[in-house]
Amino acid sequence: MGRPIVRLKDVADKTGFSVNTVSLALRGSPRIPEDTAMRIRDAARALNYMPNQVAKSLVSRETKTIGLVLTDITNPALTQAAQSIELALAELGYSTLFATSNNDLEEEKRVIAMFQSRQVDGMLIYPRSHRELDHIRQLRRANYPVVLLVADPDAGVDAVSIDERRGAYRAVRHLIDIGHKRIGIIDSANLLGNHEKREGYDAALHEANIAVDPQLSADPQGHSVIRGYWAMDKLMRLSQRPSAVFAANDSLAIGALRWTQKNGLRVPEDVAIVGFDNIEFAEHAATPLTSVNYEIRLVTDLAVARLIELIGTEGALPEPSVTLIDPELIVRESTHRRS
After folding, report:
1. Rounded distance between C-alpha atoms, residue 222 and residue 72, angstroms
2. Which of 67, 190, 252, 319 makes an SS bond possible with 228, Cβ 3.0 to 4.6 Å?
3. pTM (predicted TM-score)
4. Are the C-beta atoms of 334 and 274 separated by less than 8 Å?
């Protein structure tokens, strides 16, 4: 058997005050004199009294919890985003429940349904696919507060995200501007329908009148360092190697960098490398990596603010709002101008 539950009545019996007086004191009501409130709080601590959050949520219709759905907990950028979201919500009096879809659409649907059953007040979601969003649009149509943290501008759901097209365009444009024409790309997102980074890559090449060569595209079939290593191996075995490589995240870029170290190539003299997300490891890699900055704090603060706004809306939710943040390219030693 578990420990007996301490009720407000138990605190009232111990102090001699009414249940209503005890309740007001524990909620910090100014109607209760400070000396009385102090006696009641001391008694509550001695009895190990804990407020009944379930009962409170039935009255207020709020559980003060938010569901956060991640695609991959091992992704350093998402881990940092989760921490930022948890801290921001805690300041507002909310708890965060975490779940991971592991890039599986059915698992994403399952964890969203689980959060609904837990009656969370709203959800923040990194969707597996930026275009397979019908199950999330259904939530929005049902007046349920939900904000995406990556999305297509036409998602039809509230979203706050880095403009991934613009970020990839800037990365590749930088490589072109320093003299590269044969630029490889390591990106596994296309099969998921997440085309933004690839579209930014293509746009920069087209603008510079450089033909897109399908051979210069490597699907790492994952997002980890080792996947980046083997994708780089594929690119560098071509008879006409790329002189530069754009990787869709920094873990892939670090894997590509590791391949060059194992195979005796110099970065950036023999091949330049650019990543995406600007995680801490990018700056402290053996050759510090140029990377597109994922402004985690800005994204998460804006997303949390929008979600709280939706939760506080009386009646029908407002029209969905999509905010795309124009990212900065952080240039480091892994790229430099070609002679």
Report:
1. 10
2. 252
3. 0.79
4. yes
